[in-house]
Every structure is written in structure tokens, then in C-alpha cells.
Fold these 2 entries.
Entry 1:
Amino acid sequence: MKLTDKEKSRLKTRYGEWAIVTGASSGIGRELALQLAAAGFNLVIHSRQLEKLEEVEMQLKANADIQIKIVAADVSGPDGIDKIIQSAQRLNVGLLVVSAGYGTSGLFINSSLPAEINLLKVNCEALLALTHYYSQHFARQKRGGIILMSSMVAFQGVPYAANYAATKAYVQTFSEALAVELKPYGVDVLAAAPGPVDSGFAQRANMRMTTTLKPSQVGVPILRALGRKTTVLPGFLTKILVYSMRAVPRLGKIKIMAKVMAGFTDHQINREDERTSTI
Ligand SMILES: NC(=O)c1ccc[n+]([C@@H]2O[C@H](COP(=O)([O-])OP(=O)(O)OC[C@H]3O[C@@H](n4cnc5c(N)ncnc54)[C@H](OP(=O)(O)O)[C@@H]3O)[C@@H](O)[C@H]2O)c1
């Protein structure tokens, strides 16, 4: 999927000339960086792994004549966000994309508390800090765009991914409210809420997702929605999954998601059930 020339020009005019993309080494963040490079944005690309970012940089430069800055930083640590902000200090930044994030899965009672707190730090605290800085910056310059990665799991509780889904519910409601608050300042905020996407996500979350979208099927719909909507359900699969549950009461949705997530994680849930049944 590619952006039209008209769409590239709209994005560049409204949100250029630099964009920051966190989580750009893989999956959805990498795809958004590729599409923004094709639209002529200069890019600050971020993740923890320098080598992976250098590979992405080579790919971006092979396809577009743009400037690129690399920031390797763990946003769960105390200096991660500062490093990103410092590296972009003198740049004319008009767009922030927060795609750095991950998931955990399994029975909550068997989870590690430090691991679940780390998830909160990356998916919520770091996103909050970066959004706080750039929403003030964009409001001062009276223009800007902010894309935050929510998920279809944000719309109800999800057994076997309870904390992950809760972090996405945070991102979703935070984005919806900010979109209204920042509109009068000329700043557009978008929550992107995809269904399952084939990326590095499933492996890190220890999930097995059967039917998935490709990152290339969600990147363009997300960018097209910026400035036009406050939430986007990118890709046909996402729309089907979310709309098919629209009329289901919230408790029913939670039960459906329990079945879906049990399927994504059954290898470990079975093991864990055996273990907990002996407690
Ligand atoms: N894939 C899905 O099914 C799906 C569905 C809905 C929403 N989402 C959301 O979309 C976002 C992107 O996920 P994805 O599917 O593109 O997964 P991905 O391929 O695993 O990409 C995640 C990115 O985040 C970076 N990252 C992870 N932890 C980090 C940390 N502590 N500090 C800095 N960077 C970190 C990773 O880079 P390094 O490993 O190099 O640090 C990578 O670039 C996430 O917020 C995810 O929750 C994903």
C-alpha cells in the first residue's frame, strides 16, 4: 500500500518537516517510518537496538533523499525519553509517532510483577512523557500531529493479556481526550487501534496469532486518518473484528476475547493451569 502524491503533500504541509518515530526498528513503527520517508519527511528513528536502526536507516535512505537521526534508548529507563527529546532539540518537528511498545500474556497470577511494571513504563509512562513534551511544543507552534498506538484490545478487558489490554485502554482514552483538548491549538491527535499485526510483537508477547495483517496494510490507513479522525481501525481485518462485536454487551466481549486470547496463548495457559491446579 502506498500514499497518493496528494496525501503525501497534505501530510508534509501539515506536519513536516521532521517526524519522530519511536519503535521504528520493527513492525508498525518501521512501516510508518518508510511511508513518512516516501512522503519526504526527515526522520528521527528510535528503538533500543542501534544495529537494527542502522539497517532501517539504510533502507530509508535507499528510497528517499531525506535526513535521518538515530536514537537508541530504552524508554523504560530514566533517560530514554530525555535522549529522544535532546536529539530532536534543534529540529523543526511537526509529527510524533509513538509506536515503541510491547505486550505480555498468560495468567496474571503467574506473571512477574517487575515485568508487568516495566510494561506500564514503556506502554504508558514513556508515552505520557513524550506526548506531554510534544503537545506543549506543538501547541506553542500552533501545528502538529501525534499518533499513539492503541489496539483493538483497548475496548474491553482481555483475559490472559489483562495488563497489556489495560495499557492500551489507557492509550485509547488518553488519545480521545487529548484530540479534543489540542484541536483548538492546531494539533491533531490520533489513536491507531489495529487488530493482530504480523510483527515482532507476537514473539515478545509469547502469543501465537493465526490471522494477521501485515504492517504494510496498516501504515497507510493510519497516516491517512491523521487530521481526519480521532481513532482509526486500520485494515479490513481490524474493522471486521471490532464491528462484529459492536452490538455485544461489554461482558460478552470480555468472554469472546478470553476465548481468542486463550487460543493465542493456549500452549502456556495449559501449562500454567497444570501448575496452578497443584497449588
Ligand atoms: N502487532 C500487533 O498485533 C499490534 C496490535 C495492536 C497494537 N500494537 C501496538 O503497536 C505498537 C508497535 O508494535 P509492533 O506490532 O510494531 O511490534 P514490534 O514489531 O515488536 O515493534 C515494537 C517496537 O518497539 C520498540 N521497543 C520495544 N520496547 C522498547 C523499549 N523498552 N524502549 C524502546 N523501544 C522499545 C522495539 O524496538 P527494540 O526491540 O529495538 O527496542 C520495536 O521497534 C505497540 O505499541 C503495540 O502494542 C501491535
Entry 2:
Amino acid sequence: MTSFFPTMRMKTGLCEEEDDMFNIHGHVGNHSRSSILESLRKIIKSRTEDKTKEVVTIGDFGTADGRASLCLINDMIYTIKAGLGEKQAIVLCYNDQPMNDFNRLIEVIRGNGQKSGLALGSDIYPVIIPRCMYGVCLPYNSMDLAISSVATHYLSKQVCQIKNGISLGEADEGEQLLIREQAKADWRTFVISRGRELKPGGYLVTMNVSSDEHDDEARFVEKGTTCVASFVTDMAKDGVITQEEYRATNFNSHYLRKAADFQEPFNSDLPEIKELGLELVSMKPIKHYLQYPTFDIVNKDYVEKMDYSQRIVSSIYPWMYHVLHGGLSESRTEEEKQAVIDNYFDRLREYVLAHSDHKPYVIHTEVVIKKKKTA
Ligand SMILES: C[S@@+](CC[C@H](N)C(=O)[O-])C[C@H]1O[C@@H](n2cnc3c(N)ncnc32)[C@H](O)[C@@H]1O
């Protein structure tokens, strides 16, 4: 199977009052706020004790347009300046894959009349790093704190075409094995790459799409991702897409990792983990109900159902759009592709309207890792 560099780029959703990432998961990375600020305070304390004067470097991996982490990064700037002085130089590294819309990121950082951006002073240096986050993205021993939210479920490469579906939940045993093996290798590489970049005493705080101890998973719709994916199978059966397009459509992600998967690099005697002095500090599963007024109403009337379905479809649109678009034949015009994609979202909308009492939620696992001062 050919390996490919992931080309996913979030597509602006159908609902305009909030940004895509807020629609998708409610900026769930902010649930890591206390772990991130606690790690930062430890870094500041050790610098004060060691009287270190060098630059503080923060990295956000898989940042998209940077909106999800904006408030958090402003709080980090405030915390660093309060602890190390107003003149403390801070480098903020924004990573995403090269296909990402970095122009949107720049707009978010700059802010505009209505929306404020980063608390940019003359000592704040934002840097864009268009690279795959599974490789090393920064010089060794150069970063104090790395954060990443809702990004590590995307695999670094496609390892199979799922025959009877498009997602891990529909994959057969052999396909599942290949996906899980790739996810294991990717998580190891992600941890080791960040470990190389971190300075001794630095922290990595991640919020990862996952399953939990009850085998539960994110449920934007009542029956979860497998149901969201199943409409593609229906489209293949109905001849809306060809068999070839069906096979080429893949949600290339492991969204069902569990605690043991996040622990694996630390339980496997990997020489890099030991050499770098990486230590698993904590792991916490988080179930987060998405916030929106009609999500809480039982027995909705027609208007409420329409509002509910619009919002649910908006939370699936940005990521599913690319999964669908990526599978369609190059011989189709863009208009034809859009018509097929619209067909998918019509099917999804119909299902959502028929199951509008469901309260959507997402499940993530927060993982905090430290690089010891002396390995
Ligand atoms: C669901 S968005 C999350 C964005 C943001 N961190 C948040 O919390 O909302 C996932 C992001 O991960 C990025 N991503 C996926 N694979 C990546 C890779 N190999 N390297 C860097 N970024 C990647 C995607 O481009 C996308 O912007």
C-alpha cells in the first residue's frame, strides 16, 4: 500500500456563528487548561531557581487555524510574563500539515476589529511550522512546553483500504490490525519526537480522541462514528458512488485508542523513552457533552429539530467533507463531487432529524508527559 502525506484540511462548516473546531468538539483542548498551566508553573519555578534567562518556547501541534488554543495561549503568555518578567521572550510554534490553511491561522493570531488575537507584544514571536507532527519539527532540546489537542488520532499514512466501510469500527480483523499497528507506531513516534524537542524539565500535554474504560466512544449521532460512516456504504449500494470510490474513501484515523495504548511506549522498554528521560505523569479520560441550547431539549418541536440537525451536521461536515472528497474519482468535476457530498449530508441530516433526542458527546484522553531534568 502506498504511503501518503495526509492532505486533510478542515473545510469551513455549514454553520457560521462558531468556528469549525468549536462546532466539532467545543474546543475540548481547553479541558487540559489546568494541566497545561500547572506544567507551565513548574517550568517557570525551575527557571527561577536555576536563574535561566533563555527564551521560553511553546508548541501547538495540529493547531488548524489556532482558534481552539487562542485563549489558552494568551493565558500562557500572561502566566509566563507574571512569573519571569514583562520582557521575557516567548516563541510560539504553530504546527500543522503543509496543506493546512495557514492564512486563516495568521488572521486568528492578528485578530481583527471584532475578535482579538494573540496578546502580541514585541517579545512574542509566533512561528509557523508546516510539517508532519510525527517527525521532529523543532531543534533538539529547544521547547519548554508542547500541547496538542484532537489531532493524534489522524494516522501518518494509510495502511489499507477498508473493504466494507470507511472507518476503524467497520474494518475487518486484518484491516483493524494494520490500523492499530500504525496507530501504535505513530503514537510512539509522536511521543519520541516531542521528547527530542523538549528541553530537560519540559512537558507535553495532549488531549486525544479515544474510547474510555466503558468502551464508549464519541457520539455526535446516536449510534456513533460507525453510523456516520455507514451512509457511505448505502451510497455505494445505491450507485451514487462507484465501488472504486467506495474503497478509496477512508477515515484514516484511530479514534478508539484506550489508556493502554497511550501507556504503551512507557511499558515497552523503548530505548528512546529511557534515553530521553520521558515519564508518563498522568492520564485522564474526559467525556464532554457538546454545548448548544437545542441539544438539551427532549421532544423537540419542528423548529428545534431543524436547529439541532443543522448544528450536528455542522460538527461532522468539516472533517467528513475531506474524507468523502478524498475518495471521489478524479474524473468527476468539482460540481459532481459537491453533488455527491451533498447527497451524503442529506442522508445524514435525515437520520439526525429522526434521532433528535440524542445528546451528542465526545470522549478524549488527556495524557501528560514529562522530560526529566536528568535522563
Ligand atoms: C480536529 S483538528 C484539531 C485542531 C485543534 N488542535 C483543536 O483542538 O481544535 C486536527 C488537526 O490536526 C492536523 N493534523 C492531522 N494530521 C497531522 C499531521 N500528520 N501533522 C500535523 N498536523 C496534523 C489537521 O490538519 C487538523 O488541523
